[in-house]
Amino acid sequence: MNPTHAAPIAEPLRDQDLLDVLHHDSAVYPTDSPLSLEVLADWIQAAPQFAFRFQARSGQRYDEPSSAPAMGLFVAVALTTDAWRSFIAGNLREADLHTEALFPALSHHETSAVREYALHVYHIHKTAAWDAATSARMGPTVKAELLRRVAELEACGDRLVGVSGLAVTDAGIALMANVFECVLLEGVVDEVVVENARHLDTDRKVVSTAEGDRLLALDEDWRVVSRPQMMVRHGSL
Q1: What mean pLDDT, rounded, does the chain reach?
Q2: By CB neighbour count within 10 A (0-12 exposed, 13-18 middle, 19+ buried), where does 75 fall?
């Protein structure tokens, strides 16, 4: 079956999807302070509209809902503006974004006052099933889905005022820049992902830039895998 032009359908995440998100991110960004399953679940409980899986439409491959693997996964967390500003300034880690930092997107408010929030993009990736089923590009597909959901909140008086992403790879930096129109915020992230060529399974880790320089000078088997960057956009999508 040839891929179609139709974009996949966005559906709520399943329990296994949360584990897949954390597993994928730990491989790319093996930080000493990883996001826990409990915090990730809190994000989704507070604003489930900003976390979804992509499922094939009828007629595309993998279109049996009971057994179909996700074609792609996306997770963003809705934050209060105070928490978001503190986060993009480098005062909070992703693992710290819980409880009072979360914007209660599901709660209804009686007043006419506008509530402001920001979105931090935590995870986005597609699987081989995406390319097998559709020729649609994932980045624009995600953005279109987000725009629809942001508009629904705006109709209720909730206004998006910023978007961010801690981009770890060159592809992630390009996606945040080209799809979400974010710019690099200099001087916020002072760390690198390094690995040792002799121990690829165990020696990939996140260290400070200075520690990365020390390791590279100490042993030629160390190399920099990626340089995480804070990408930010002020205003709505």
Answers
A1: 90
A2: buried
202 burial via Cβ count (<10 Å: 0-12, 13-18, 19+): exposed
DSSP letters, 12-41, are EPPHHHHHHHHHHHHHH---SSPPPHHHHH
DSSP state of 60: B
The secondary structure of 113-181 as a DSSP string is PPEEEEEEEEEEEE-HHHHHHB-S-HHHHHHHHHHHHHHHHHHTTEEEEEEEEEE-SHHHHHHHHHTS-
- 212 token code pair: 């990365």
Nearest CA among 79, 77, 67 for reference residue 14: 67
209 and 152 in contact (C-beta within 8 Å)?
no
* Helices 15-28/37-46 angle, 10° precision: 120
Q: What is the 8-class DSSP label of residue 65?
A: T
Closest CA to 193 of 25, 1, 71, 42: 25
**CA atoms of 153 and 155, how far apart (whole Å):** 5
**For the segment 142-164, what is each residue's pLDDT rounded down to a tens digit?**
999 999 999 999 998 999 999 99
To the nearest 10°, report the CA torsion of 123, 129, 133, 138. 20
H or E element, residue 86? helix 81-88
The residue that leads in pLDDT, 201 or 30, is 30
Global confidence as pTM:
0.91
Q: How much of the chain exceeds pLDDT 70, in percent?
A: 89
* Residue 40 CA: distances (Å) to CA of 54, 75, 95: 18, 9, 9
